[in-house]
Amino acid sequence: MKVLVIGSGAREHALCRSMSLDPAVSALHCAPGNAGIAGVAELHAVDALDGGAVTALAQRLAADLVVVGPEAPLVAGVADAVRAAGIPVFGPSGAAAQLEGSKAFAKDVMAGAGVPTARSYVCTTPAEVDEALDAFGAPYVVKDDGLAAGKGVVVTDDAEAARAHANACDRVVIEEFLDGPEVSLFAITDGETVVPLQPAQDFKRALDGDAGPNTGGMGAYSPLPWADPKLVQEVLDTVLQPTVDEMKKRGTPFSGLLYAGLAITSRGVRVIEFNARFGDPETQVVLARLQTPLAGVLLASATGTLADLEPLRWSDDAAVTVVIASHNYPGTPRTGDPITGLDDVAAQDAPDAYVLHAGTKRDGAEADGPVLSAGGRVLSVTATGRDLGQARERAYTAVARIGLDGSQHRTDIAAKAAADS
Question: What is the pTM of this model?
Answer without folding.
Answer: 0.92
